[in-house]
């Protein structure tokens, strides 16, 4: 006569082993997600990071950014900051930095100031939509609904993107689309 108690225990153990394996695999996949974080930003920009132009009187410091779990084939990174809600019909590019070496995992606060020499060696900052290279903090129109600013890190399959300091956000975005292995974003809000 078969021993059902032993059969159930073996079946139960196989089921539990399968569940544990699935949980391990899911946890491993989750742990490998390319991730962008900032130790200096929350859900809204503070005055330290807003523009000191266009009627705003902020500190115009670019935020500290750090990232992890980039794809193994990453040769360089790029960072952009874009305002979806700018009343231009095409948004507004606030910050574009490319050619960040593939070994770098952090941008220091104020690395977007081209005179501060805090950007990683070899990186290139292109013109924002205000017409100068480097970071321009948020300064949405008074009484507008909160604007959404997307800060994105791109893991790229090339060491040099092929842009220059005068390349537009649109051209840079096009080339990023050709070389992106993975990307991660933060959305931060600003209202005046």
The CATH architecture of the largest domain can be given as: Alpha-Beta Complex
Instruction: Report the structural category.
Output: alpha+beta
**In CATH terms, what is the fold-level topology of the largest domain?**
Phosphatidylethanolamine-binding Protein
Contiguous runs where pLDDT drops below 50 for at least 5 residues: none
Hey, roughly how much beta strand do the residues contain? 25-35%
Please explain how this structure is put together:
This protein has 192 residues and is α+β, with helices and mostly antiparallel strands. The chain folds into 2 domains: 1-31; 34-190, PEBP-like (Phosphatidylethanolamine-binding Protein), CATH 3.90.280. The chain contains 2 helices and 8 strands; from the N terminus they run H-E-E-E-E-E-E-E-H-E. It has helices at residues 4-31, 169-179; strands at residues 35-37, 65-68, 76-83, 92-101, 106-107, 124-125, 147-156, 180-190. The chain has a 5-stranded antiparallel sheet. Strand 3 (76-83) and strand 4 (92-101) form a beta hairpin. The mean pLDDT is 89.
